[in-house]
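Bench notes, afternoon.
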Amino acid sequence: MCIRDRIYAIGDYVLTNAAETVSKWVAEGIVEEPTLWVNVTASELLRTGFKQRVREVIAAAPGVALGVDLVEGPAAVEKTVCDVIRSLALDDVRASVDGLGDSYSVLTDLSRLPYDTVKLSRDIVSRIDDDQYSRGAITLLAQLAHRAGLQVLATGVENGAQLELLRAMGVDAIQGHFASQPITADEMRTRLVSNEWAGRGSNSS
């Protein structure tokens, strides 16, 4: 087995086990209608059998919706990639494009691309505390995305002050250490049961 195939196998294993875990939480009443987001590369998205594998995972994990997160770049707007995203959407699989703010290759295509969520880059989010230009850029990006019918998620959010600023700029959801440090599935289950994230507001994801 070559290195690439090993990487694909690891990705399949992680996806399957994560979906099974979240589906159990749904059955236990711990979460309702969750969406499990997984990072994928363009090459993984285009590999033979990927769409069928996704369908198998969805069928085996009742109550769990799936989303694929593609890193922004030239591949995000390629026809072959977009065709796969559109095909997955027929099975109610969501899709996001990552890194908005690092480059602007996607901006002119927002209205015609098959993504439903755009993710602001960690770099631009990290500057909002003291950089008026970054705050203005995020506000503009959020407005453009919303006009195209997309949700906006900010990555790399570190504190409550940033969360409040991002809310004011029109950002819909966040990721980052303010929401949570990396944790195990068992730790996440404990936090969900205790409703630990309730105080972070509905804009946490």
